[in-house]
Structures are given as C-alpha cells and as structure tokens.
Amino acid sequence: MATAIQHHAQPSAQEREARRQLAACYRIFDHMGWSELIYNHITLRVPGEEGAFLINPFGLHYSEVTASNLVKIDLDGNVLDGSPYPVNRAGFVQHSVFHRHLPDAHCIIHTHTTAAMAVSATREGLRPTNFYAAAFAGRIAYHDFEGVTIRPEEGERLIANLGQRRVMMLRNHGALVMAPTLPAAFLMYWILQRACEIQVATGSAGTPVDIPDEVIAVHQRDLAGMQLPTGPGVPDFEAMVRVIDRIDPGWKE
Ligand SMILES: [Zn+2]
C-alpha cells in the first residue's frame, strides 16, 4: 500500500549487542525447556533509543531466533525496523504495560512452563519451602486470571498488583519477571523456575515444611550481600551462552 521508500538506519552498536544478548536468551530458554511452541515473549529495551524494544518474530520457534530476525517495535507494537516478520501484538500488550510504566523494567520474561503455571494455579502460590523459594518470600506479586491478556484495560490492575515487586505470578497462567538488565532477569527467572519445579516435586514427595520467617530474613540478607561486581546474572548468563553456542552458533547471525 505504502509507496514511500522506507529507510531503516543501520542498527547502533548498542542495538546490535542487545540483539545478540536477546537472541542468545531465546536459545537458552529453549535449551532449558522453557519455550512454548511459538508463544510467550522475552522483550528487551533497545539502549539509547527511546521507546524501542526487541521481541521474537511471531511464528518462529525460540530455536530459530537470531540476532537479526528479532523485531524492533515501539510501545504500541508497531514494527520499527522494516522486519518482514509479524509480531504477536496481543502477546506484547502485557509487556508494553510494564515497559511503559516502569523505567527500570528493561528486560521482561514471560513463560508458561509447567512448573510456573502449576504453582500459579495453586491457592498458596509459591511457598517458602525450599532454598530457592525462600529468596522470593514476600517478593512475589499475584494477579488474578482475567482471560487471555489482550485487553489494555487490564494494564492498570497489572501495575497496581505488581506494586514495587518485579516478579509476578499470573494466576492460572504463568510467570512474569522483569529486571534492569537481561542477565539479571535471566538469573531471577532461573531461580524462580527452580523454586517452582522443586515445589511441585515436594508436593509429591511428602508434606512440605515452611521455612520460618526469621530464617528467611537471614537467608535474604545474606543473599543480598553476595552481589557480584559484574552485576547479577552476568557469569550465569555467559556460561549458558557458551553452552548454546557449542550447540548452534547460528543465533549470532
Ligand atoms: Zn501468557
């Protein structure tokens, strides 16, 4: 329809780096068994560019995502980079609410893994009954299921229910994690996923034991004191990048 020739600037060095990081992340999620057919999203803000985000091309499996086929979109889901791939705009609605309202939410991860969805579907939610779950005690927001998250008016309630927290269990639906960097979001998600898997396994092993509040306080205090100079999740993420790179280095293309 449009006859005007659209010129798309070459991606900046920052954008190219963000593309590589996010493409690697999709491959890692698939390697970990956290992909969901062609659905779900991990989105990353493009540094140095107001209101620009990278998202997976709709229709491709996470194992097919590469640095160059990620789609650059604005907050309304409009394609900015002339990508031939469509974007799951409905799926981006929820991410855009958080990207729009939370300046620190540079990377957002949403999954439907069995463990996360199972825990989200329980009345108790994530219980402090294991090492990993103890890190999240008092730090998880919950949002009741309202049907598929495509209606913008749900956004207000999502933001209100999240409050100051950055990890959310979408009841009956799945998990949502956001952080200022992709490696930080990755590590946070990994811990949450492990916590959920172990909670599900614990339920079939016997009667779960709640960790007492005073032990949780000590645990969370000591974890906070273990910050790495590289920033949270960096060595963890880099280790997993090496793993997926050995399997198929094509993610970089
Ligand atoms: Zn979902």
From TrEMBL:
<feature type="transmembrane region" description="Helical">
    <location>
        <begin position="174"/>
        <end position="192"/>
    </location>
</feature>
<dbReference type="InterPro" id="IPR051017">
    <property type="entry name" value="Aldolase-II_Adducin_sf"/>
</dbReference>
<keyword id="KW-1133">Transmembrane helix</keyword>
<comment type="similarity">
    <text>Belongs to the aldolase class II family.</text>
</comment>
<dbReference type="GO" id="GO:0051015">
    <property type="term" value="F:actin filament binding"/>
</dbReference>
<dbReference type="Pfam" id="PF00596">
    <property type="entry name" value="Aldolase_II"/>
</dbReference>
<feature type="domain" description="Class II aldolase/adducin N-terminal">
    <location>
        <begin position="20"/>
        <end position="200"/>
    </location>
</feature>
<protein>
    <submittedName>
        <fullName>Aldolase</fullName>
    </submittedName>
</protein>
<dbReference type="InterPro" id="IPR001303">
    <property type="entry name" value="Aldolase_II/adducin_N"/>
</dbReference>
<dbReference type="InterPro" id="IPR036409">
    <property type="entry name" value="Aldolase_II/adducin_N_sf"/>
</dbReference>
<keyword id="KW-0812">Transmembrane</keyword>
<dbReference type="GO" id="GO:0005856">
    <property type="term" value="C:cytoskeleton"/>
</dbReference>
<keyword id="KW-0472">Membrane</keyword>
